[in-house]
From TrEMBL:
This is Major facilitator superfamily (MFS) profile domain-containing protein. GO terms for molecular function: transmembrane transporter activity. It comes from Starkeya nomas. It comes from the Bacteria. Keywords: Membrane, Transmembrane, Transmembrane helix. The keyword Transport does not apply.
Length: 413
């Protein structure tokens, strides 16, 4: 990417960074919050697990409705304006959660979690904006730029959230609020994409279901979306339960959980910046890269359910996220390539809605901790990721530049 393009996309990348930064910041904070002395003293263990499940699940409920709506909105009114809506909404959400801790009302915290999910739409919008300008055989490389920014947020968010939350749970919320407002101000004067309205948009709570129903009319998206969903569901089971495991079985503090999550982010960052490029070049195309990523990631998640020392879990966390990126980038590129540019925001919004559903289901599963050990969930997550290989075997390879020219010439003849 040249310097001029980087400058033009900087506000977009910052919005993506803040979105994933604030998301990662919350996970160690939530796990620690519901093991806090005040909540431990006020609720029975089964009730605490239910509240923990609710805290995890409300975000993806909002995300399910918000992701597809915001992706479709960005196709209609422009990427920049929609990103500004996301940042303003995220700022209000973190303000609500800050207030909840100030006044001691959990319902305000839960409301903030729900609204932050509704506004968590920057990733598919940014992905659509970057992919719009990329030829079909270069879309995975374009997607890697956004994923790299995602991983930097994933590294910084949990680490900062864990360390600041170790001192005061309000500190990471205040930081997230300030960063959202800063990003909103920068987006206001940004010019990375056109803000001209492309088509009409009407807000309707039924719209996410209509957008999902549109998938049946576009069969090309079903295979990559199915593989991506299984992959994300399995991995997010791991991401949710490994933090609980590290606290309950290994005695990790809030700061320790943040640093552990940072190691997972470092695995993503390493693969996004270096590993993906070399593996993709070695294998020659997206499909084998995706299949290798699914196989390695699933295997590492299964290993995490075995009796390992703490350093072993840290090593597995790095390897699982490094291999995760191989599948994440290529499957998202496959989803985006299944539609034309007028529906790319919708398609990536559908993928993000799948992530939301995965986070929701993984959060609900924490309510079963009174019946099953954490290790069972970690192993199950790995098996589900491996199941993503089955639809992945049917992935179509994107056409190369030469193939596209041949197709165009054939159409002219």
């Amino acid at each position: 990417m040249d310097l001029a393009t980087l400058r033009a996309r900087a506000p977009l990348f910052l919005a993506v960074f803040i979105d994933i930064f604030s998301f990662g910041l919350m996970y160690p904070l939530i796990v620690a919050l519901f093991e806090n002395g005040t909540i431990v003293a006020g609720y029975a263990p089964s009730t605490r697990d239910t509240l923990l499940s609710l805290a995890f699940s409300l975000f993806p409920i909002g995300m399910f409705f918000g992701a597809s709506l915001l992706g479709d909105l960005s196709d209609a009114v422009g990427r920049r304006r929609t990103l500004m809506i996301c940042m303003a909404g995220l700022a209000a959400s973190y303000g609500l959660m800050w207030l909840a801790l100030e006044v001691g009302h959990l319902w305000l915290f839960f409301l903030g979690r729900l609204s932050s999910g509704l506004m968590a739409g920057t990733a598919p919008i940014a992905q659509a904006s970057v992919v719009d300008a990329a030829p079909e055989d270069r879309r995975s490389a374009a997607m890697a730029q956004v994923v790299l920014v995602n991983t930097l947020g994933m590294v910084a968010g949990p680490a900062i959230g864990g360390i600041l939350g170790h001192w005061d749970f309000r500190l990471p919320l205040g930081l997230a609020l300030a960063l959202c407002l800063l990003t909103l101000a920068l987006l206001r004067s940004a010019h990375f994409a056109s803000d001209e309205a492309r088509r009409a948009f009407s807000l309707d709570w039924k719209q996410p279901f209509r957008l999902l129903a549109r998938v049946s009319d576009r069969p090309a998206i079903i295979v990559p979306a199915a593989s991506f969903f299984l992959f994300q569901f399995g991995f997010l089971i791991y991401y949710t339960f490994i933090l609980i495991e590290m606290q309950r079985s290994y005695g990790f503090t809030t700061a320790d959980l943040g640093l552990f999550s940072m190691v997972m982010g470092l695995g993503c960052a390493f693969s996004s910046a270096i590993g993906f490029r070399y593996v993709r070049a070695w294998l020659g195309s997206d499909k084998p890269t995706a299949l290798l990523g699914l196989a390695l990631c699933g295997a590492f998640l299964i290993v995490s359910g075995l009796p390992l020392p703490a350093w072993g879990q840290v090593a597995v966390a790095f390897l699982s996220t490094a291999s995760n990126i191989l599948a994440f980038i290529t499957l998202l590129a496959a989803v985006s390539s299944a539609v034309d540019e007028t529906e790319r925001g919708w398609a990536l919004g559908i993928a993000n809605a799948g992530v939301a559903l995965s986070v929701f289901l993984a959060g609900l599963l924490t309510g079963l901790l009174v019946f099953l050990p954490v290790d069972a969930f970690l192993i199950a997550g790995g098996v589900i990721v491996l199941a993503g290989i089955l639809p992945g075997l049917k992935l179509a390879e994107p056409a190369t530049g030469t193939e596209l020219q041949d197709q165009a010439a054939a159409e002219l003849r």
